[in-house]
Amino acid sequence: SPDHSAAPERAPRIYTRTGDSGFSSTFTGERRPKGDRIFEALGATDELSSAIGLAGEFSSEKGHTFVDQLHKVQCMLQDVGSNLATPLSSAREAHRKRTSFSEKPVLELEQWIDNYSEQLPPLRAFILPSGGRSSAALHFSRAVCRRAERCVVPLVQAGEADPNVAKYLNRLSDYLFVLARYAAMKEGKEEKIYIKPEP
């Protein structure tokens, strides 16, 4: 008969209480206020991954083949976060090696952008976020991406984060825009355009 005498293993608690005083730790072990711009950038990147996750779910329901790319982007955003959480001013060489961010993912995004752009009708008007749920969610992701980029640029300019991280987010917003248009086209949904209201 099974031994029930052993105490059941307790799952680790999700809360640590270490941030209750308004401070949090970087990967380098530095304690910084939660309002520090590093945590602003990390939060925006996390929000971006969540927005892309939602767009991916909508797109998956429609059978879009680009969902695997969105999953790869979410994985890259984890690496973006690792780089941001390792401020270069306090990083040892081992930290830098483990969390460096190369140009390769940037070039991959450029290939994806070119591929989808070639299949799209030319832009003739200002497009509003629309074109079905997949497309609208991708447009929303693009807007969150722009904010993440705005949070990251000052860190790059201060020499705290890798310039390729800012480049990646810049290309990612272009990719999400093109993908939103592609999703609308594939689903046969109409993209709403800006019409100047009557005075």
TrEMBL record:
GO terms for biological process: cobalamin metabolic process. It catalyses: cob(I)alamin-[corrinoid adenosyltransferase] + ATP = apo-[corrinoid adenosyltransferase] + adenosylcob(III)alamin + triphosphate. Residues 14-183 form the Cobalamin adenosyltransferase-like domain. InterPro entries: CblAdoTrfase-like, CblAdoTrfase-like_sf, PduO-typ. It holds the Pfam family Cob_adeno_trans. SUPFAM superfamilies: Cobalamin adenosyltransferase-like. One of its GO terms (molecular function) is corrinoid adenosyltransferase activity. Residues 1-12 have a biased composition (Basic and acidic residues). It comes from the Eukaryota. Residues 1-31 are annotated as: Disordered. Keywords: ATP-binding, Nucleotide-binding, Transferase. The keyword Transferase applies. Residues 18-28 have a biased composition (Polar residues). Belongs to the Cob(I)alamin adenosyltransferase family. Converts cob(I)alamin to adenosylcobalamin (adenosylcob(III)alamin), a coenzyme for methylmalonyl-CoA mutase, therefore participates in the final step of the vitamin B12 conversion. Generates adenosylcobalamin (AdoCbl) and directly delivers the cofactor to MUT in a transfer that is stimulated by ATP-binding to MMAB and gated by MMAA. Homotrimer. This is Corrinoid adenosyltransferase MMAB. It comes from Machaerirhynchus nigripectus. The lineage of its organism: Eukaryota, Metazoa, Chordata, Craniata, Vertebrata. The gene is Mmab.
